[in-house]
Amino acid sequence: MLDGYHVNGSGTDKKQRIIAVQAALEIIKAAISTPGGAKNVDNELDLVVKHLPKIADAIQEAVKK
Q1: What SS3 state is found at 37?
Q2: 65 alpha-carbon distance from chain centroid
Q3: What interhelical angle do 41-64 and 13-32 show, nearest 10?
Q4: How many CB atoms lie within 10 A of CB 43?
Q5: Residues in the chain with pLDDT values less than 50
Q6: CB within 8 A of 5, min separation 6: which ones?
Q7: What's the pLDDT score for residue 49?
Q8: Domains of the chain: which residue ranges?
Q9: How much is the pLDDT for 25?
Q10: Residue 21 has what pLDDT?
């Protein structure tokens, strides 16, 4: 999921952010696809918008360590 995050030891900030957001979307997609996870699609999409940046930030912080 995070393949290519560091290309030869470093990647551009924009590319790293795109990869982190893609990983965050996969996490959210898995959470929504669980039984009961997609009860209210509009509500779930609102939650995606709210939490996507936070999850992507957390992924980027974890990769830095």
Answers
A1: coil
A2: 17
A3: 130
A4: 10
A5: none
A6: 11, 16, 19, 20, 63
A7: 85
A8: 7-64
A9: 84
A10: 86
